[in-house]
Design brief:
The chain is of the alpha/beta class. Helix content is 37%, strand content 17%. The protein is elongated and about 70 Å long. The structure holds adenine.
Length: 249
């Protein structure tokens, strides 16, 4: 790779388990980009901002109920020490209550200079610190994890691979799932025959146009079968496009 003079996309992670990072992000595409200085990682140990002699970061919820809540004063001190949100990208709080992560949000975040990610544990953080710092609340899906750290890894991975220079081949980005509002068509490689299963004939034909038509049809079929929600949006977007094309003729 040619020397990299770009300012790295700075990811700051506030966590009670900073040693979890970079973890899986140290490997493969994200790991290479980290080594190449395309992005940089700064972890902040939330526990370092505990004030009392027991270094407590959480307490029982007012009003009773199960679990523990992360203290507003401790989280606030960690956020302030790591540079306030707005400097070097948004402050993001990972929570199942957040806006569900999708490719459009990953793209938007990749266009920033960086991001600061707050990882919750236990039942979450005191609501007042959210009111005070107004983070962008993001969920990775309608499922409950034991903490924000694995969700942060998912978010960081999705964003880092979109940074300039990380993915080798631009087409493979444009072709992949969600970028065009469809799931991806199926892929095949050698051997041509495997366990009595042949590769679809059209892919061996060398007719690029026929291959493209086949792949488009496959992408539409798999999306229609598996994802009613994506399919409905795709159809609606296509109709809108058609109306505006007709208006211009
Ligand atoms: N923390 C726990 N569950 C989560 C989820 N689904 N998304 C983001 N953060 C979480």
């Amino acid at each position: 790779m040619e020397p990299n003079n770009q300012v790295p996309f700075l990811v700051r992670v506030l966590s009670l388990f900073p040693e979890m990072f970079p973890g899986p992000l140290g490997y493969s595409l994200a790991g290479k980009a980290l080594n190449d200085g395309v992005w940089a990682l700064e972890t902040v140990d939330i526990r370092a901002f505990a004030r009392d002699k027991h270094r407590s970061v959480d307490d029982t919820p007012f009003g009773g109920g199960p679990g523990m809540v992360m203290r507003a004063d401790v989280i606030d001190a960690a956020i302030r020490a790591s540079g306030l949100a707005g400097e070097g990208g948004p402050l993001i709080y990972l929570t199942p209550r957040g806006r569900v992560l999708d490719q459009a949000l990953a793209r938007r975040l990749a266009g920033e200079g960086g991001m600061t990610i707050l990882c919750g544990r236990f039942e979450g953080v005191d609501e007042r610190v959210l009111e005070c710092h107004a983070p962008l609340e993001v969920s990775i899906g309608d499922v409950v994890l034991s903490g924000g750290e694995p969700a942060a890894m998912v978010l960081i991975d999705a964003v880092v691979r979109l940074l300039p220079g990380v993915m080798g081949c631009r087409e493979s980005l444009e072709e992949e799932s969600f970028e065009r509002g469809l799931l991806e068509y199926p892929h095949y490689t050698r051997p041509r025959d495997w366990m009595g299963r042949a590769v679809p004939e059209v892919l061996l034909s060398g007719h690029h146009e026929q291959v493209a038509v086949w792949r488009q049809a496959q992408a539409e079929a798999v999306t229609r079968e598996r994802r009613q929600d994506l399919w409905a949006r795709y159809i609606a977007a296509g109709m809108k496009q058609k109306v505006s094309d007709d208006e211009h003729h």
